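INFO  loader      accepted 1 record
INFO  loader      residues=300
INFO  predictor   begin
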Amino acid sequence: MDERATIAPFIGGSGELMLSEVVSLVANLVGLLIAYQGYINRDGRQVRVASLFILFFTIGLISESNLMRDDIRPQFLLILLIWISIELILERSLAAIGLIALGIFLPAIGQLGDHTTHIQFENMFGKPLSESVLAPWVDRFGALEEPFELAGWLLFAAAAAAALKTHILAEGRARFMALAVLAIAAIAIGNSFLHLRDDNEFESFRKLGFFCSVAGVASAGAAVLLQHGRRDMLARAYCLLFVVVAYWIAVYAPAVYRHEHSKTMSSWIWIFPVFAGYYTLVSCRRSYLRAASTRVHETP
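INFO  predictor   done
INFO  writer      dumping tokens
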């Protein structure tokens, strides 16, 4: 991939508009779609793994939107990856484990070229990374940070597909998939434009980004309502909760947290909702499956 490729060549100096950055957002959103399809599967045994993948790709989306400090997001992601790997070992999903391992290895090599990595290395060991035994690796792979990071997200999405029983292209879901694809494209493009500075020069582009992000959340909300809205009141309530959370993550946070201290503040804001979200996802899904099973057995 050409590291200079961008979705907005008429705007200079914004790395968040590079094609690799936008496709990384797309990879996280595709991973969320795969995890969601595994989550709603009738097989209750994969609820925990699907819920963890949902949280993982949500954190990935938040971090790719620069709403977490660079030195904090790896802690979230590593904890979740270890947790997911333990679940996959118990399920004996060796293919998914291999994809996750490769997905960790490639971005780790690419991170050798990251400025933050160089600072942290020097602070920890007292000498520049370029003067360490890792210097040949830095020279060889440091320039490939963005492509390797993108490859990592794609491998994680592939791991989710390998681990979960998903039926994204099942019969009768053409409208759902059309809305889901529209939502993924709109949110990825919208969040990219929302990275621009909040000033008169880029105000129109930020408005375009806000409109695209809102349209993406609306499409995602329409997709889940189309799939679940006819079931019962509880299902519709979950759909509305999804829309609220999606708006918070994909529209409100990227549009508002753009000042210099936003990362420090928002990094810690996510901790409790994320790990409380795991309990909520697992509990709600299992409760829904038990209720559905009870209704089936009570039907004459």
